[in-house]
Amino acid sequence: MLPPYVMASDWSRNNRTWFAAVQTEKRMMFLILALIVAVAAFNLLSSLVMAVKDKQSDIAILRTLGAGPGEVARIFLVQGALIGVIGTLLGVAGGILIAYNVDVIVPFIERLLGVHFLPREIYFISALPSDPQVGDIVTIGVTSLVLSLLATLYPSWRASRLQPAQVLRHD
């Protein structure tokens, strides 16, 4: 118990505007990361669509040898899933590595470029704080995996719908 002359207060209640600004900044960073993941998923989608286009004759030959539409779709689903999983694992590992070593990386880049990102005369902080949260890392990783898996659905469906006779006739 505290003596009656001591009053305790919560810093987030005393500094509501600052706390709200930090929360807004965190949401904006999440939005930026989500957009980066969406661009990566779109790149995966477009590369798989191009792979389907390039492999049309191979897909037609597989179909004529007895491969069903599901088997053809599975080939592209597995390809896209592997790319998505490997990319997500490398991205999360790289992000964690950078987040835990930002205090070493930023001064290195500053010396390399000859600039100071946060001059003490202008800003109240002299270093970039980094506090990776497990929940944030998991959210980003799961979002990345889900988007990459969703990006594989259309190309896989398109590959499974190819008609062997039409493709081989035009080759």
UniProtKB/TrEMBL annotation:
Family label: Belongs to the ABC-4 integral membrane protein family. LolC/E subfamily.
Subcellular localization: Cell membrane
Protein's name according to its UniProt entry: FtsX-like permease family protein
PANTHER family tied to this protein: LIPOPROTEIN-RELEASING SYSTEM TRANSMEMBRANE PROTEIN LOLE (PTHR30489)
Pfam families, per the entry: FtsX (PF02687)
Residues of the ABC3 transporter permease C-terminal domain: 31-164
Cellular compartments per GO CC: plasma membrane protein complex
GO biological process: lipoprotein localization to outer membrane
Keywords: Cell membrane, Membrane, Transmembrane, Transmembrane helix
Transmembrane regions: 75-100, 134-154
InterPro entries recorded: ABC3_permease_C, Lipoprotein-release_system
Coiled coil: none
Topology with respect to the bilayer: Multi-pass membrane protein
